[in-house]
Amino acid sequence: MPFAGLWALVPVSGAALLIVFARQDTLAARILSLRPMVGVGLVSYSAYLLHQPIFAFARIRSPEELGIPAQILLSALSLGLGWISWRLVERPFRGQRPALLPGRGLYFLVSGSVGAVLMALAFAIWANDGLPGRANVRYAGEIGNESFARYGEQFAECQPEAARQAVELYEHGRRRCLQSKPDVLPSVVIIGDSHAEHLFYGIAAGLPDRTVAIYLQNDIPFLDAPRFALLFDVLDQNPDLTTVVYAMHWPRRMTDLDDDAGFESRLFETLRHLKQKGVQVLVAGDLPWFASEAPYCKYETFQGHDRYCTALRADADAARLRYGPILARVTAALMIKIVPLRDFLCIDSSCSMAPAGTMLIRDSNHLTVAGSLLLGGRIAAAIPSPAP
To answer: Rounded to an integer, what is the distance from CA 247 to the centroid of its chain?
Structure first.
């Protein structure tokens, strides 16, 4: 369970009980009055301020997850440095002795000067896009949403106008509704959430003679979903439509609905509706979810260390246990083909963001441009040429 969640009630409840019941004549009060406990209390604020960067840098620099012994050692280090800070900073600021500098005014002057120098240094680092050589670039390929969106600027806005009015917007205001050729109705439409969107570049590149469009909303792409109703109407009214690629972030959307029977029923009705239009329907499989974000993999400083780049295949299999059987039953009943994708990222017992030396994941679960060209190209290869 993530913190803060229900587990946060444990320390909060303990603190509340101490406040209510720790009177001078109680056992709790006598324990808290012991010199070691009082000492921890005195340095606790300084230790609190220092422990976060200590643990953060230790996790970044460690080739493995921090074990219990390492966490105990770092906690002791935080307390030790907290004591130094309390002794040399907190006490003098409060006018208590010993003081390294005569007078509180001089302390404020020195502290302000140090703070100003640190702020100037931080600004210089930011202005120069970091320190040179701060991290080794392990893998090729751009990551992040900005580079992914920038690649899409070469494409036209999707048709028709009704589709553009029904889709999500990028942060910079452009609609997330693209197509590979301008001013014509698309013959191939990818519909779904962001896990449909990240396939568009590859499918468009793999079908250069077709007009490919992406229709996207941040919702479960069901026929009766309010955000998708207009987009399905657009599909129904498109006389040039021959193929629909249906995709979503399957584990997340299952969790969003939290009704397996309802999910299966609505998925069946949606895909049956598309099949009844007489178009080819393909369903895209999903990708593994990585616990780390892509920058930690691309710029990892420890050569040969892949903790930030990999996920266990067993975890990906476990995530699929809920939606996999539902997807298999529905597609089998409707004779719809599923195009698996994660095999490109998963080899043997692990899955990788950069299986061939190029970043295919741009955050924790979305494809880069290179990943889209590769995996979207696999879907494009499964789409037959239109009948003459």
So the answer is: 18
